[in-house]
Amino acid sequence: MTDPHYLRLLAREYPNADAAASEIINLNAILCLPKGTEYFFSDLHGESEAFGYLLNSASGITRDKIEWLFQKSVSLREREELANLVYAPEQVLSQKDTGDDSYCEWCEITIYRLVQVCKTVASKYTRSKVRKKMPETFAYVIDELLHADTEDTKEQYYGEIIHSITRTGMAEKFIITISRLIRQCSIDMLHIIGDIFDRGPHADLVMDELMGFHDVDIEWGNHDVSWMGAATGNLALVANVVRLGISYNNFDLLEDGYGINLRALSMFAAEVYQDDPCTIFTPHILDENTYDPVDIPLAAKMHKAIAIIQFKLEGQLIARHPEYQMEDRVLLDKIDFQNGTVTIGETTYPLTDRLFPTVSPEHPLELTPAEEELIHTLALSFSHSEKLRKHIRFLYSHGSMYKCVNSNLLYHGCILMTEDGEFDTVSIGDKTLSGKEYLDYIDTQVRRAYFAAPGSEEQRNASDFLWYLWCGPKSPLFGKSKMAAFERYFILEPETHTEARNPYYNLIEQRETCEKILREFGLDPAHSHIVNGHVPVKIRQGESPIKAGGLLFIIDGGISKAYQKQTGIGGYTLIYNSHHLALAQHKPYELAKQDFSKNAPTMQIVEIMPRRLTVGDTDNGKQVAQQIEELTELLKAYRNGEIKEK
Ligand SMILES: O=P(O)(O)OC[C@H]1O[C@](O)(COP(=O)(O)O)[C@@H](O)[C@@H]1O
Ligand SMILES: [Mn+2]
Question: Could you give the ipTM of this predicted complex?
Answer without folding.
Answer: 0.93
